[in-house]
Amino acid sequence: MSQKQQTLNGPLSFQGKGLHTGLNVQMTFLPAEAGSGIRFRRTDLEGAPEVEALADYVVDTSRGTTIERKGVRVSTIEHVMAALWSCGVDNAVVEVDAPETPIMDGSAREYAEAIASVGLQEQDADRVYYDINEKTVFSIEDKGVEIAAYPDDKFTVNVNIDFNSKILGNQYARLDNIENFSLGIAPCRTFVFLHEIEQLLQHNLIKGGDLDNAIVIVERDITPEELERLSKLCNKADIKVTKGYLNNLKLRFPNECARHKLLDVLGDLALIGVRIRGSIVANKPGHFANTEFAKLVRKNIKRDSVRPSYRYNPNTEPEYDINQIRSMLPHRPPFLLVDKVMHVDSEHVIGIKNVTMNEPFFVGHFPQEPVMPGVLIIEAMAQCGGILALHDIPDPENYSTYFMKIDGVKFRGKVVPGDTLQFELRLVEPIRRGIVLMEAKAFVGDQLKTEALMMAQVARNKA
C-alpha cells in the first residue's frame, strides 16, 4: 500500500435504501484534499453541514455505527468506512441526502468494486501511521467481549464470534493483508437471527431490510403460518428455510458471518483517523466494543504525541559527537549546551544534553534547590535547531543560525542535575530563503519538560 496519502480519482455515486430508515438514499464519494480525512456531508440539510468520521463523534451503536456533531448525524457508516479505508482512500467527502447510508446488498462489495474502477490519486502528503507500542485492550468481561491490539510491524485482524448458535457455531476469520479486503472481506453480508427481526421492527428499525441485503439465521422449526407472516413482513413470496437460513440463501464463504464481523471491525477502526500498525484480536466484537476500542487508541495517540519518538541509548554511537558539534556551531563552553546529536536528517534532529551539578549556572540559580534555567533549555533547543538548519549545507562552519521568533513556549516541569535532556526538533515547513520554522520539544525520559515553536534565519558569516 502507498506510503503517501490517497484520494479518489473522481466521484462515485450510489443509490439504495437505508437499512433502518427505509429511505431511498443518494450517496456520492468525492475526492478531498490531503490531510482532510473522511467526512460525511448531509446535502439534505441547510448549508450541507459535515461531520468528521472519528470515534469521538460516535453517539449510537445499537444496530450500526452512528456519528453526530453539532446536530449533523449519519447512521450505518461502518461499511462505507471499511471500503474507503481498506481500499486505500485516506481523504474523501461522502455526500448523503438522508440520515443514513444505503445498505446495498448488506456488504461493502459494491463500494470496493466502484473504488477499484475509478482508481486512486496519490497526494503530496505522507500517510500517517500509529504504531501500537503496548498491549491495548477494551473488554466487557461478563459478556466475553474483548478487543485487543498487540505491537506488530504490520496491520492484521483476527476475529472470533460465538453466538451460542447451533447454525453458526464458533467462527473465525483473519485478514493478514489489507489488500485482500476487496475479495475476501468486502463481499460478506450482514446477518441477523430470525428472533431479532420482530424486535427490530417493533423498535422502528430495519425498514429497509429484506432478504436481498441480510443473512437471516433460523435456529428452530417454524410453522407454515409463521412463514406466511414472514413473507408479508419481508415483502417476498415463497420464503423457505434451508439448512438454518431463510430463502435458500447461498453463503459466499463458509464463515461469511465471521468475515462480516471483521468487515465491521475494519470500518469502526477506521474511525481512529490514522492508520495503525499492530495485530488486532477481536473476540465477540460489536459496534460498541469496536468504537470504544477506537476511542481508547485515539487517547493513546494523543498521549504518545507528547512522548519522545526516539529512545536514547548511551551505548549508541552518536551521529555527531561534541567535536563535530563544535565544528558546526560557533558556541563554546560554558554556552555550548548540546553534548551529542543522535540523529539528524533533512527534517528532524535528536540532541542530548547531560545536566550535571558542575554547570556554572547552578552557582547562582536556585543554589539551595538547583534548577536548570528555562531560558537555557530554550537556548539548548535552539542550538539543536541550528544543527538541523545547517545539516544540508556543505560548509556549515561558514554559516550561523540567528533566531528571529519563539512562540508557544511552555515549561511543564523542572530539569535538575542528573537529568538527561533529549531534544526533538522537526521542520514545520520546508526551508525557504534561509527561513527555518521548527517545532521543538525537550524531554527527560518520557516526560515533556519544554516545548516551543521556533523561527530562525540561516545567514552566511561575514568574511
Write up this protein.
It contains nine helices and 26 strands. It has 463 residues and is of the alpha+beta class. Strand 4 (38-42) and strand 5 form a beta hairpin. Helix 1 packs parallel to helix 2 (109-118) and helix 1 (78-86) crosses helix 6. It is elongated and about 95 Å long.
What features would you highlight for this structure?
single chain; 26 strands; 463 residues; alpha+beta; 9 helices; six-stranded antiparallel beta sheet; six-stranded mixed beta sheet
Low-confidence stretches: none
The amount of beta strand, in percent, is: 25-35%
Average pLDDT works out at: 91
Terminal CA distance reads 51 Å
The count of strands amounts to 26
Radius of gyration computed on alpha carbons: 28 Å
Question: How does the overall form come out from the CA principal axes?
Answer: elongated
Figure out the total of helices: 9
- Classify the oligomer: single chain
Q: Percentage of helical residues? A: 10-25%
User: What structural category arises from helix and sheet content?
Assistant: alpha+beta
Largest sheet, described in full? 6 strands, mixed
